């Protein structure tokens, strides 16, 4: 299939007049054809106008139609075959196995949301029946369902060219909620974006939906992204990226005449607390697991373990030595883009130059452009507590070991942390009391707390939370992975005393859709 | 019981050093003893510090203890007896019947949240069990529950001195969610606030909870409110009041180092669409119902019908004449405070002076200070569409009739409206097609859509939505009335592979709390 470099709007392709983006093969530094000229503001207007026009019809599609649409997107992506994987490999430097797995996750998550849509629990249907005889005032009939917020802007993420991009989690959950989606493609994988975008366009057409349900725009710089979030027809947005980029767009969303929810996932150092008995017993095994988690995908995962907190002493020294040995045998992996590589080198160098920070280990330098040399650094707890700069994420395979004098200092570190996507406890039975002291602190800091594992690898399931207090995300009340994500794009509407002829089917007497409903305070099941 | 004018912090009373507030009897304009000197910033710090210290313990109280606490607050409020009603009457000018009803609603809503807490569905428990044999990667154990966001700031509202104030909906839902509450008392009913605050303090003590679970602060001007929202220990806030006040505090919440959810309910004109057949058949009856809804509580209800949209013609003329007759027989009611009365007079006068606006009717002038002279105005649809000033709320018993040429113009009005708490359809069978055209527009504009009634009177139930798109509220994803309100103060936390010894009881194997849980995608019931 030809990649044209065009915007995808309302079922057709539109050549853009803007500054062109070149996709770069980060392994070689060479540009890839074709160029992707950015969208004009008129094209952005058109995409938003079509999305707004499609909303009322799309949000009232039957649950079955909407579920089938999500499944059709998955099968259209699978039908792209190896072309998609090859293009994504060239644009991102990620290896085949990782991208094949990511495609499976992307399609799996579309199918999971199809199940969620069919299930209908997200409608949160509640009926309170009239009680005309109630004293002192009669009770009127009230019925509630949730509906989509409106057209949603989705920003493709650099580090998941499939699972957090054009047909990724934000798109899947917004479409599941009944919201048309306008995607701003990430400039680091525009060809991958177009292939997936065309797959969605085919699914829209095959399912007979209004063409405005989906659009894909390209744009260099921040103009198109900013204009998209500012457009009055857009009612929510999903973003995964840097703290500075997320914060800037979040401010645009809050500064509108009508502020809108802006779900930014931005920054997390994912602290790993290695408790004494576990570290003493398993230093070597932990070092292997840690080194693999640190360097997977060249460290370019939102849940990469960026901090290790442990007691200073022989066990920690053995752990650090074992990590150093493991890293020394590793080749440097290609990073996603020259920009991300530059930022990584600068972040790593800055960290190494901070007062009191010692370099512990490195992977090999690597040959060729844009290679990520993994790094492990160490600092004592008092210095960490006094240095806000050490709390910041270095995006890539770099981690910092915080050496504590005692358990109280480990607890102090936990209290001092900013919001996180994850927090990890490495523990044995003898560590349970220490873990019990840390747990309530970590619950207030992180969206996911894990034991005896490493935080990379995010399961797409009902119980997942990929979220957390600021700055991990802009909104800790939600998640961007897992079925709970659908709630980000919904709002409740109450219907009081509405004639049966006007009531949405989900709220009708007799429960024609067979939904789980809360009726007069009691669950009514299928 | 003596009203002392003190702040209530950590189970004790603290005289404030700040500028004193005098409660004013709006019926006479006379001040009421005692004075309420405002809190110092140190007292505010103390309240927030105690709230933060109480959070971990309070959020892990058993469901039964927390439910009993809410019920105890209700019975302590009832035990205040007539003293509470008399004080509230003097401070607000509201009549005894209204305040007795409001007390019943306040206590009923505390007891409703006790039911919600016991039920435990708000925990949203989800378990995805481990599948060690899964290919290509084993599935780990994941479990999710929701926990409280942290200490919550609640702003008392002027117009509901009980149901939206110290122990009102925001406090009840935040306490139900496991969040300590720091209330900023409204300056128009500080004595009522202290009486209710002391009732809550007694309930805290009787239930054996940490004293930091509740605090009450006074303060004139905006200093204390602003400092409260800015305090790093406060993790969410609830507000009901003016658009300017709500917007100012919302900006403080967004400008913090860690932005927080700020739930402001601000402004709504609550459009009533009177469709032709219904208006033709029932003009007289509609006029009676409308006049009662317009003038109840001197028009000082968030859901007061501020706009009537109908076709110009004889039926509308008959309706207006009947409203005029009804208003002419009504006495002007006392408004809540001199400040609200001043703003009402100015808002009403400004509306009357707008280009194209005609005065249709008024209630009597009334004798004594702070009386609300109800007003009905009319304007043609084209002028309304061209005049943004006519879309703004006049808080009090004033409404504007928009006279349309045809159905298309009624639809244009619907499209042009800002976000609303409510939208009303007055219809007969012959109006169904017109209603079907308006309904999807109104769903996008309002949190509650009602038929053949008037929007004042908000039922506290599972299916209620008292919310809506901006500027009706700052967050359309939620409601401030009804059981769904608990979700405003919760966030999800995922526990991955946690040893049984550390798992919260709600997530334990064997479901010891007997909760409704989602286990591997299926509902597991009690």
TrEMBL record, chains A, B:
Region of interest (Disordered), ranges: 1-29
UniProt enzyme class: oxidoreductase
Catalysed reaction equations from the record: 2,5-dioxopentanoate + NADP(+) + H2O = 2-oxoglutarate + NADPH + 2 H(+); 2,5-dioxopentanoate + NAD(+) + H2O = 2-oxoglutarate + NADH + 2 H(+)
Gene3D superfamilies associated with the record: Aldehyde Dehydrogenase, Chain A, domain 1, Aldehyde Dehydrogenase, Chain A, domain 2
CDD domains per UniProt: ALDH_KGSADH
Keywords: Oxidoreductase
EC number(s) given by UniProt: 1.2.1.26
Keyword Oxidoreductase listed: yes
A matching Pfam family: Aldedh
GO molecular function: 2,5-dioxovalerate dehydrogenase (NADP+) activity
Residue span, Aldehyde dehydrogenase domain: 19-458
PANTHER family hit by this protein: ALDEHYDE DEHYDROGENASE-RELATED (PTHR43353:SF3), SUCCINATE-SEMIALDEHYDE DEHYDROGENASE, MITOCHONDRIAL (PTHR43353)
Family: Belongs to the aldehyde dehydrogenase family.
Entry protein name: 2,5-dioxovalerate dehydrogenase
Organism whose genome encodes this protein: Halotalea alkalilenta
């Amino acid at each position: 299939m030809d990649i044209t470099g065009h915007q995808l709007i309302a079922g057709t392709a539109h050549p853009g007049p803007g500054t062109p983006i070149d996709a770069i093969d980060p392994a070689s530094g060479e540009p890839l054809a074709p160029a992707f000229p950015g969208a004009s503001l008129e094209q952005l207007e058109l995409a938003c106008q079509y999305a707004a026009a499609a909303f009322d019809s799309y949000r009232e599609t039957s649950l079955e139609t909407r579920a089938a649409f999500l499944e059709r997107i998955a099968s259209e992506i699978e039908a792209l075959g190896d072309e998609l994987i090859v293009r994504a490999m060239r644009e991102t430097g990620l290896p085949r196995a990782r991208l094949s797995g990511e495609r499976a996750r992307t399609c799996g998550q579309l199918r999971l949301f199809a199940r969620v849509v069919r299930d209908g629990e997200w409608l949160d249907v509640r009926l309170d029946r009239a009680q005309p005889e109630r004293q002192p005032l009669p009770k009127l009939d009230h019925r509630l369902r949730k509906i989509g917020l409106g057209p949603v802007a989705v920003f493709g993420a650099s580090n998941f060219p499939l699972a957090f991009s054009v047909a990724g989690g934000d798109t899947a959950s917004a479409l599941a909620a009944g919201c048309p989606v306008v995607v701003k493609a990430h400039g680091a994988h525009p060809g991958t974006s177009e292939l997936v975008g065309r797959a969605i366009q085919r699914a829209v057409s095959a399912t007979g939906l209004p063409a405005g349900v989906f659009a894909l725009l390209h744009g260099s710089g921040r103009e198109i992204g900013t204009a998209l979030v500012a457009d009055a027809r857009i009612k929510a947005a999903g973003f995964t990226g840097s703290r500075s980029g997320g914060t800037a767009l979040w401010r645009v969303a809050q500064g509108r005449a009508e502020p809108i929810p802006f779900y930014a996932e931005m920054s997390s150092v994912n602290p790993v607390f290695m408790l004494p008995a576990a570290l003493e017993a398993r230093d070597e095994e932990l070092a292997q697991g840690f080194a693999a988690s640190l360097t997977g995908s060249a460290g370019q995962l939102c849940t990469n373990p960026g901090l290790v907190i442990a007691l200073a002493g022989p066990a920690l020294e053995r752990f650090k030595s074992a990590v150093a040995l493991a890293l020394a045998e590793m080749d440097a992996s290609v990073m996603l883009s020259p920009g991300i590589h530059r930022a990584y080198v600068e972040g790593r160098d800055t960290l190494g130059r901070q007062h009191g920070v010692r370099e512990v280990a490195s992977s090999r330098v690597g040959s060729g452009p844009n290679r990520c040399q993994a790094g492990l650094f160490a600092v004592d707890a008092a210095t960490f507590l006094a240095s806000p700069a050490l709390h910041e994420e270095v995006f890539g395979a770099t981690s910092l070991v915080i050496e504590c004098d005692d358990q109280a200092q480990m607890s102090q570190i936990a209290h001092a942390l900013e919001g996180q996507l994850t927090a990890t406890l490495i523990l044995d039975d003898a560590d349970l009391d220490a873990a019990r002291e840390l747990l309530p602190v970590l619950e207030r800091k992180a969206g996911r707390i894990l034991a005896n594992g490493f935080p990379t690898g995010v399961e797409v399931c009902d119980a997942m939370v990929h979220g957390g207090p600021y700055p991990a995300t802009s909104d800790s009340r939600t998640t961007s992975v897992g079925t709970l994500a659908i709630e980000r794009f919904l709002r409740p509407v109450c219907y009081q005393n509405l004639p049966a002829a006007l009531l949405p089917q989900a709220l009708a007497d007799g429960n024609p859709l067979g939904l789980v409903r809360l009726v007069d305070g009691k669950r009514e099941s299928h």
